[in-house]
Amino acid sequence: GAPVTVVGVHSAKFDNEKDSSAIRAAVLRYDISHPVVNDRSMSVWAALGVSSWPTLAVVSPRGRLIAMLSGEGHRQDLEDLITAALQFYGEKGQLDGSTPLPLALERNKTQPGAAASPLRYPGKIASDVAGGRLFISDSNNHRILVTDLNGRFIEQIGGNGPALGDGSFDSAALNRPQGLTFSPRRNQLFVADTENHAVRCCDLVAKTVVTLAGNGNKGRDYRGGRGGSAQPLNSPWDVELDASEDYLYIALAGQHQIWDLELSSGTAALFSGSGAERNQNGPTPFTTSWAQPSGLSLAGDGSG
C-alpha cells in the first residue's frame, strides 16, 4: 500500500477516558489496528491547536503539520490531500514504503477471561418472557444469540459478518448489531444493525432475516420518507416498538435523531431531532435536539 501511517491520538473529553485500560478496551472493541496514543495531558491537542472532536491532522514525513480537518464528512477532501502529498513528497524522495512499523496488536495479546466467554463485547439484550427466550446482540461476533432465560443456547442468527446479507439465520450477515426489540404479536425480532447502517427484521418462525431500511452505507438524509435500501440510515443504535407494535422507533446515534418506521408500509422518517448535537427540548421535530441517542424505552402508558 501507500507509505501512509495512521496514528490515533486519544485526547479525552472526560476524566474516566484518560485511563489507558479504558482506551485499550475501546481499541479491542472496535478492532483498531493502528497505533493509539493516550494524550492524557492534552499536550498533543494543544501543540496542534486542535479545538474540536474529531480532528484529522495530516503531517509531512519530517513532522510538519500540513493541514487539519475538523468534524465529520471530509473523506473526499482527505483522500485528495493525501494523494497530492504522496506525489509531492514522493518526487522529493522523502517517502519510505518498505520499512514496516513494529506493531504488537492488542487483539493478538491474551485477554483475561477472553477464552472463557463465547461473547465479544455484547451490546444489548431483549427478552421473550412468555416464550422463555433471551436475545443477545453479540456485537463483535456480528451475530444474535438466542438462549433460554437461563442463558442456555438455542440458536444463532448471523455470524457471517461483518457484512450485510439477508437470508436464512445460517446465511444472513450482520455488522456489529446493537439494539434489539421483540414483537410478541409478530414473533419477530427487530435489530439495529449499527455498522451496516440498517434495521433488520428476524422472523423467528420462518428463520429468515430481511432488511427493512438501510443499505450498508452511512446516510446523510435528515428527513426520510422512503424504505428498504432506498432509505439510508446513519448508525442506528437502538430500536423500540410502540404499544401497537405497528411502528418501530429508531435511535440514529450517528446523526442525533430519532426516527420511526411504519411496518405496514416500510417507510422510515424523522420523528424527533434537528440533527444538531445538543440538549434541547421543543414542540416540533426540528426544534428538538439530541446528542448521540443510543437507547430507547417505551413509557408504561405507551406514550414513548
Automatic annotation (TrEMBL):
The organism's place on the tree of life at top rank: Eukaryota
Chain positions covered by the region annotation Disordered: 274-304
InterPro entries per UniProt: 6-blade_b-propeller_TolB-like, NHL_repeat
Biased amino acid composition, Polar residues: 277-295
Keywords, sorted A to Z: Repeat
Protein name per Swiss-Prot or TrEMBL: Uncharacterized protein
Species of the source: Volvox africanus
